[in-house]
Amino acid sequence: MPNKVVARNRKAIHDYFILETYEAGIVLTGTEIKSVREGRVNLRDGYAKIEGGELWLYNIHISPYERGSFYNHDPLRPRKLLLRKEEIRRLLGKTKEKGLTLVPLSVYIKDNRWAKVEIALAKGKKQYDKRAAIAERDAQRAMERARRVAVRNE
Q1: Domains along the chain with CATH numbers
Q2: What is the pLDDT of residues 68-96, one digit of tens each?
Q3: Minimal CB count within 10 Å: which of 2, 15, 33, 80?
């Protein structure tokens, strides 16, 4: 069964160089998982941090479940991520390096059962890096467009 991607953090790919990616489980309450399945997740300003040997996800907005009554959750509460202890230790060492951070790339439902978060070890881009990436993407589009026109004219 393919994974159902619920939300993507497209801004992270624009703002960071992605060095490594990890799949982590996420601890959610009953109303949170229902909102995630409906696709009501915003990852834009999210980040992950290691505290007390555990990995936590901050600034992820999961909208309150519409039919949740007074059992609804706080949309911006910190959420615990589930990774192996060795992976957390490795990430702790890496994030101590200058300029490396943990950002969420996507939230998806795996095997139609489990909510997972793809987190990335990332290094921030400078303004000139962002401009170079945009110029490269535009050049790629222009080449693809020219190839399509050449194929059509044959």
Answers
A1: 4-125 (2.40.280.10)
A2: 677 777 778 888 999 899 988 888 888 88
A3: 2
